[in-house]
Design a protein that fits this description.
The structure holds 2 protein chains of 2 kinds. Chain A is an all-beta fold. Helix content of chain A is 0%, strand content 54%. In chain A, strands 2, 5, 6, 10, 11 and 12 form a 6-stranded mixed β-sheet that branches. A 4-stranded antiparallel β-sheet of chain A has the order 3-9-8-7, with no helix packed on it. The relative contact order of chain A is 0.34. Chain B is globular.
């Protein structure tokens, strides 16, 4: 069975600082990996996804993530965050014929 | 495209009442998903449909919950009777065929409060 672990439930950071949100997954087969963002009182919006090919994936709003197969990780990074990046971030994993499995979420709080 | 549309956006009801949540998927998407989000349990997949047919309802918490998709452009999630522990945000999402790498597009959610 697949599972997703987001290692930090809350990440406070100052504006313009870099940030990394960590995600590890477990699966015995090849997977697709996603990061979604949820702004307050809104639905989830896709940030980026890894399907195949280059392990470094670039998404919207300056975010990127790196797929590391040996470490079964898909960490999300941004070199310089803005106040507007304050939101909850969800990592998710899916295999070819399976459901989308979400992690518990990481609350990113950007302070001035 | 208007995206996934959900109604109502907020619902407050009393314990024992019937609640119906509605969803209109993105035109052309043939997979539809219902999720529930709570602080305690995070995002849970309740049920999903492909071509209007329920594929997996193992996430539906109990018989009080039911979902239908009478056509490609409309789905409902019904709770009868509702209980305070059903209070949550319910999301509908749609996608191209659910197998493969297709991303899911989420609606804005319905915030349900059962008193």
């Amino acid at each position: 069975a697949q599972s997703v672990t987001q290692l930090d439930s809350q990440v406070p950071v100052f504006e313009e600082a870099p940030v990394e949100l960590r995600c590890n997954y477990s699966s015995s087969v090849s997977v697709y990996l996603f990061w979604y963002v949820q702004y307050p009182n809104q639905g989830l919006q896709l940030l980026l996804k890894y399907l195949s090919g280059s392990t470094l994936v670039k998404g919207i709003n300056g975010f990127e993530a790196e797929f590391n197969k040996s470490q079964t990780s898909f960490h999300l990074r941004k070199p310089s965050v803005h106040i507007s990046d304050t939101a909850e971030y969800f990592c998710a994993v899916k295999n070819q014929g399976g459901k989308l499995i979400f992690g518990q979420g990481t609350e990113l709080s950007v302070k001035p | 495209d208007a995206g996934v549309i959900q109604s109502p956006r907020h619902e407050v009801t009393e314990m024992g009442q019937e609640v119906t949540l509605r969803c209109k998927p993105i035109s052309g998407h043939n997979s539809l998903f219902w999720y529930r989000q709570t602080m305690m349990r995070g995002l849970e997949l309740l049920i999903y449909f492909n071509n209007n047919v329920p594929i997996d309802d193992s996430g539906m918490p109990e018989d009080r919950f039911s979902a239908k998709m009478p056509n490609a452009s409309f789905s409902t999630l019904k709770i009868q009777p509702s209980e305070p522990r059903d209070s949550a945000v319910y999301f509908c999402a749609s996608s191209l065929p659910w197998t493969g790498s297709n991303e899911q597009f989420f609606g804005p959610g319905t915030r349900l409060t059962v008193l």
